[in-house]
Design a protein that fits this description.
The complex is a heterotrimer. Helix content of chain A is about 80%, strand content about 0%. Chain A has 13 helices and no strands. The radius of gyration of chain C is 28 Å and the shape is elongated. The interface between B and C is large, with 80 and 66 residues.
Chain lengths: ~325, ~550, ~400
């Protein structure tokens, strides 16, 4: 098991490394850098002349090491992140990016995780129903739900819900994450309930889309497993149908599903972003889009980096879970 | 026959089973009637498609949802009618008074649970033991089925056991609750012949110890003859004949039974010309596999020797049989000789020229001389190509036959040679049966006009009657074209019918070699003796 | 294990229908008839196929027969065909010029289609012109239909001119009369007919989908086959690349890539860049699946047989591996199109995809991004119907194909 873990960690670290390089390239790609930005700012708001701004640029470049070779800048950047928590500046908000992203990031994570768990549980449940009642009513209903979830665009569902809440119901809890009175309040169940009232559309829409894929994958896997000889052998032991399905079939069908989580998780994350953008809930999505519109490249790239790293970590845990469930994987040392 | 007032253990009357498909009902079993007394073993025999498995499963009501049991069908178990019982009511019988073991021990055990859990499950369910009691009993059961190292096995997972061991575990699960009837559906078909003999002996012993009745479903006539008390012959869903084993084999009544018994491999190959030269030799041929496992920091590796310094020679017009069980390396040896895989040492020579040091391009010219036919007629033909395209590929690649018309002629000739209608050359593999596909595979080899053909278990996946036709065809082709065969098989009966000489392989090493009759009738080495006894007498 | 693409005869008897015996390598029907012939003393194989009533069937005709029985798949196919026709002849199907502005008809709500009037049934649906008034007491906007004038379009009539395959044309399916509005789905901020824009928008949306699919599938399959067949170190590193592409979250990655597009590109150039961005991650999933299939097929005996007759690696890949992988690729392609349509719609909806004056469905939805607009003019959402129909039909078609190609895979 240890060998297996080590192998997975090395793999994950490798991925993180590549992701960081990609993010770094993203930051460096657009023309202009912090020095240009600062100089422009100094000119427009500080009354510097053009020649003076050039001198300023030079100074800033030297101070921040912006004219050193790319590799050195990359190392410097990584050091800054890992050792000091410095993720670069936001041009638009004139704040360190870390501060800007921090709260929103954890909110996104929380909501996306909830969606993911819900989508998985409901999707797996529907998938089991679909497989066990194949071609009969249970299957038709479950498959239809899944089909709808896959077909209807998430942002459209969000728009419809938004329209309904804003113009039909007159819902007050739109566009924010907490009501005014709870923003600074300490944690309590009331606060949690308030949070829920604000974000349930996101959870609903993202989970609805996510459960569709889970359902299909589970149904397909379970149908394959139910055809296996050991299922017939279990029936021959005189075990009731429910035991055969739940105890013998489902654990074997989960194996590919856990592997599938690696694809499902980015999908859930994207879903959360989509819906949050439409509904204007202050999580990472709207911030990233905004930074996109306004050319705030450090924000964009850093959000990308954080989200990707989170997914690599989540994938790692999915692999570990797979190793725990399936003894064959543990022994082989790899999937 | 039976004058005691006690009811028979099992009485089946007019059993009919149909399956509801999209476009109607397909009848699988029609009006099958038989009975089984306590303590006796009845073999249900037939070729594939006979309906034996369906019949066996119908007894336990283990049929899929779309199965319909005929209204006239009656099944009586221990005096009680069970054909109308609901699934729920059957639960009390299954695994308890009627138990079943299946064909594929590789996949009949749930891969994610330990052995002890799987055995205990049955005990807990039917005898209401506690977990600890059940585990203890599981250990006892493993000892009864004579599995080596039972304590360790309990804690292990199925993938850590061999096929034979898994089957023993399955048997342990089956006898856990002292069943009165054991249904065994082809329990040894996937096992090696020596293991098969052991398992059958085990079943026999348990039968006596527990006073169990056994319904043995099989297509293997040798097993039936040696092991069962009575035999029932099925074909296309109908029961044709039932009799005591000895009587049936000495005096079969039904025409089909006669044909079936006659299909057992028979005959001998034509003798080889006395002055024919040696065409193929290997010397110290070695094939190794490196097994690696472990992670980045503690990698371990082991070298598995699949073919261990094998020396053999074949003369022109001769058939050399390579005999061995699974893991013996016979297929690896064949592929190495054909240069389909790399060898790690030793010589391979064809008519004096070395083959082992030639790369893919250099081997090209030899490909027309040396050909191969594989075991599985289903995966050896590309489903997307027509028969013509499959057969003529060799001609195209080797630029034989300048024009399309010329190639067409050759393809047709090859089809005629193997007994197929040449007008079918534009059809696709899925339109042919297993035996016909194997003929196509042979035609593919023949069209290049080779001198030597390696045949890797060409008849193992075929029914008995089809098998005998293929054997006849191979003998006929050898006679007409003076072909040399390397025939790989685990079936000694087929080997005796086709081969002049035999080489016995065990774990990559040559154990014994000699004339076919000598090796099979008068084996010298211990392993060979065991093999022969297991194969021909079904004795472990 | 069934070989992908291989079929058993449709009439399965007996043992083969029992699920656990899928491992047994005998299709019962055939050997049963063989047994029969053996028992009857005939040479079984020689005239085999002739004696049965089965005609020669290529793999494709087999697939078609199975597909025909799948009603959902056939519906999907019909819809996809309809979409294709509308997309190709979009200008013919659109009543108004999609870029013609009309200051008098800004934000007109959808006009109801009527078939009945006082003078009976009309085959061609007509509309009544709308007038908006402000109610004196409530100050709410009130829409009134002016039932005195009927606006009936001319079937196959002449209308605004366009180009069809290089030829000038001006016939339309329904050509509305001049001066009498026939805006079935309403108009937008500039008075342009939304229905026409929806119909014409299909061209760009479908074009983007096709381009992205073509790029991803070609690249993905190539990588997958090379990875699967060549194996070794090449495979290992390609796999790492695939893992990386699969680990990245889609929307953030697209956002990040969009962030570095220079601002001064033409809309057409932006479309191409959008296509490139959308292809950047999709090839990975297909590469992984194709690799799996390639690995499975490489181990089959017919590949070994081809090697045994001396076929080159190239020939084996093209002749043996590719055709058997193709069916899977076709299914994956069909199922990829809906997701591309969805993501393009989202990006254009946000304003970071297709830019005006080009028209795609997502771009049309951009009008609904402003919540005030959404509230006042909810019909701005109607282009989503086009998206829904397209996505649904391709999904149905893809599912039907997948079931027809490999019936054991549910």
């Amino acid at each position: 098991m240890l060998r297996f873990l080590v192998r997975r960690i090395v793999s994950a670290l490798g991925l993180v490394f590549v992701v960081s390089m990609v993010s770094f390239l993203l930051i460096k790609a657009p023309p202009g850098d912090y020095a240009d930005y600062a100089a422009t700012l100094a000119q427009s708001q500080g009354g510097l002349s053009y020649e003076q701004s050039l001198v300023l640029k030079q100074e800033i470049r030297e101070r921040l090491g912006l004219n050193k070779p790319l590799v050195e800048q990359y190392v410097h950047w990584v050091e800054g992140m890992v050792l000091h928590g410095d993720f670069g500046p936001s041009y638009v908000f004139n704040k360190p990016v870390g501060e800007l992203i921090n709260d929103r990031f954890w909110r996104t994570l929380g909501i996306a995780s909830t969606c993911h768990v819900l989508a998985t549980l409901i999707g797996v449940g529907l998938g089991i129903i679909g497989a066990v009642y194949q071609h009969r009513w249970g299957d038709r209903i479950a498959s239809t739900i899944a089909f709808l979830g896959m077909t209807i665009p998430r942002f459209f569902m969000a728009l419809v819900i938004l329209y309904w809440l804003a113009f039909v119901v007159g819902y007050q809890y739109i566009g924010a994450i907490y009501s005014r009175e709870y923003i600074f309040a300490p944690f309590s169940f009331a606060k949690l309930w308030d949070l829920f009232k604000h974000v349930w559309p996101i959870i609903f829409v993202a989970a609805f889309g996510g459960l569709a894929y889970n359902m299909r994958v589970m149904r397909g896997n379970l149908l394959d497993v139910l055809r296996q000889p050991y299922i017939e052998a279990a029936r021959a032991k005189g075990l009731p149908g429910s035991t055969v399905v739940l105890k013998h079939a489902v654990p074997n069908a989960l194996h590919p599903l856990i592997m599938y989580q690696g694809i499902a998780m980015p999908y859930m994350l994207s879903g959360e972003l989509e819906v949050a953008i439409v509904l204007g809930v202050p999580t990472v999505g709207p911030l990233m889009l905004d930074s996109l519109y306004r050319g705030d490249i450090w924000v964009t790239a850093t959000i990308f980096l954080w989200l990707s790293v989170i997914l690599v970590v989540a994938n790692f845990f999915a692999d570990v879970a797979l190793g725990l469930i399936d003894p064959r994987v543990r022994e082989a040392g790899s999937v | 026959m039976d004058s005691s007032p006690k009811p028979r253990l099992l009485e089946v009357d007019n059993l009919s089973v149909g399956f509801k498909l999209d476009d109607g009902v397909v009848e699988a079993v029609r009006d099958v009637s038989f009975h089984l007394d306590r303590g006796e073993m009845l073999a249900l025999v037939g070729e594939s498609g006979a309906g034996k498995s369906v019949t066996a499963r119908a007894l336990m009501k283990l049929l899929p949802h779309n199965a319909i049991i005929g209204r006239q069908s009656r099944i009586n178990f221990a005096g009680r009618s069970i054909d109308r019982l609901s699934d729920r009511q059957m639960l009390a019988l299954r695994g308890n008074r009627i138990a079943m073991i299946f064909q594929e021990p590789m996949s009949s055990l749930n891969p994610v649970y330990r052995i002890k859990t799987q055995i205990s499950e049955s005990l807990i369910r039917h005898q209401r033991l506690t977990k600890r009691q059940a585990h203890a009993r599981a250990l006892d059961l493993l000892k009864e089925v004579r599995i080596p190292d039972p304590d360790a096995r309990l804690e292990q997972y199925p993938h850590q056991l061999s096929g034979g061991q898994r089957q023993r575990v399955m048997i342990a699960i089956a006898i856990a609750n002292n069943p009165e009837l054991l249904i065994a559906d082809e329990p040894t078909t996937s096992l090696d012949v020596t293991v098969q003999a052991e398992i059958l002996k085990l079943i026999r012993n348990l039968q006596i110890a527990y006073q169990m009745s056994v319904l043995l479903v099989t297509h293997n006539l040798t097993v039936v003859e040696k092991v069962s008390d009575r035999v029932a012959v099925m074909r296309l869903g109908q029961l044709l004949e039932t009799n005591a084993t000895a009587s049936l084999f000495s005096g079969p009544q039904h025409a089909y039974t006669r044909k079936l018994l006659a299909s057992a491999p028979s005959g001998r190959p034509d003798p080889v010309a006395p002055n024919s030269e040696i065409v193929l030799t290997t010397d110290d041929l070695r094939v190794e596999y490196r097994l690696r496992w472990g992670g980045v920091f503690s990698r371990r590796s082991r070298i598995l020797v699949a073919v261990d310094d094998v020396k053999l020679s074949i003369r022109s017009g001769e058939t050399l049989g390579i005999v061995g069980e699974s893991g013996s390396g016979k297929t690896t040896l064949g592929k190495a000789i054909l240069r389909l895989i790399h060898s790690d040492g030793g010589l391979i020579a064809w008519r004096g020229e070395r083959l082992d040091n030639k790369d893919k391009a250099a081997m090209r010219p030899y490909r027309t001389r040396i050909q191969v036919v594989f075991q599985d007629p289903f995966s050896s033909l590309n489903p997307r190509l027509s028969i013509k395209q499959i057969i003529e590929e060799g001609l195209i690649v080797n630029r034989i036959g300048g024009s399309a018309r010329e190639r067409d002629k050759r393809v047709r000739a090859a089809l005629v040679d193997v007994g197929l209608d040449p007008n079918t050359l534009n059809r696709f593999p899925h339109e042919f049966s297993g035996g016909q596909r194997q003929r196509v595979a042979i035609a593919r080899a023949l069209v290049l006009d080779p001198e030597f053909i390696m045949l890797d278990e060409p008849t193992s996946a075929l029914d008995l009657s089809v098998q005998s036709q293929i054997i006849d065809l191979l003998r006929d082709l050898q006679r007409r074209r003076n072909l040399t065969y390397l025939f790989i098989s685990h079936d000694l009966k087929v080997v005796r019918a086709l081969c002049h000489r035999v080489l016995v392989l065990h774990q990559g090493k040559v154990v014994e070699t000699g004339d076919a009759d000598d090796v099979i009738d008068r084996p010298r080495e211990d392993y060979t003796k065991r093999l022969v006894r297991a194969a021909l007498e079904v004795e472990a | 294990m069934t070989v992908f693409g291989e079929d058993r005869p449709p009439r399965l008897l007996l043992d083969a229908t029992l699920a656990p015996n899928v491992g047994a390598a005998r299709p019962a029907a055939e050997t049963a008839s063989e047994s029969q012939q053996a028992a009857d003393g005939l040479i079984a194989d020689s005239a085999g196929p002739e004696r049965r009533a089965v005609r020669s069937q290529t793999y494709l005709s087999l697939v078609w027969r199975r597909f025909r029985r799948n009603s959902l798949g056939m519906t999907g196919a019909a819809l996809v065909l309809a979409i294709a026709v509308v997309t190709i002849f979009a200008n013919f199907f659109s009543p108004y010029d999609p870029i013609a502005r009309n200051r008098d008809l800004i934000y007109v709500p959808p006009q109801a289609l009527h078939f009945f009037a006082e003078d009976g049934f009309h085959l061609i649906p007509f509309t009544y012109p709308l007038s908006t008034q402000i109610d004196d007491s409530t100050f709410q906007v009130v829409i009134k239909e002016d039932s005195t004038r009927k606006c009936t379009p001319v079937f196959l009539g002449r209308g605004w001119s366009y180009e069809l395959f290089g030829f000038a044309a001006d016939r339309h399916l329904f050509s509305p009369p001049a001066g009498c509005p026939w805006n079935v789905v309403g108009t937008d901020r500039e008075g342009r007919d939304v229905l026409s824009r929806m119909v014409v928008g299909s061209q760009l949306t479908m074009a983007i989908a096709m381009i992205v699919v073509a790029l991803s599938v070609t690249f993905g399959s190539l990588i997958g086959i090379v990875s699967g067949y060549v194996g070794g170190l090449t495979d290992h590193w390609i796999q790492r690349g695939v893992e990386f592409a699969l680990a990245l979250p889609e929307v953030p990655f697209y956002f990040a890539l969009v962030a570095i597009i220079p601002r001064d590109l033409t809309p057409l150039e932006i479309v191409f860049i959008v296509c490139a961005i959308l292809s950047s991650l999709r090839w990975a999933q297909l590469a992984r699946e194709v690799r799996g299939k390639t690995l499975a097929i490489s181990r089959l005996d017919y590949v070994a047989a081809a090697e045994a007759v001396g076929a080159s690696r190239w020939r084996i890949v093209v002749r043996h591996i590719l055709p058997n992988v193709m069916s899977h690729v076709v299914v994956a392609t069909t199922l990829m199109i809906p997701s591309i349509i969805l993501i393009e719609s989202f990006l254009s909806f946000l304003g970071i995809g297709v830019q005006p004056p080009m028209i795609s469905w997502g771009l049309l939805l951009n009008a609904a991004q402003n919540i005030q607009n959404l509230g006042s003019y909810p019909w701005s959402l109607s282009p989503v119907v086009a998206v829904l129909i397209a996505v649904m039909s391709f999904n149905m078609l893809g599912d039907g194909l997948r079931d027809a190609i490999d019936p054991y895979q549910q």
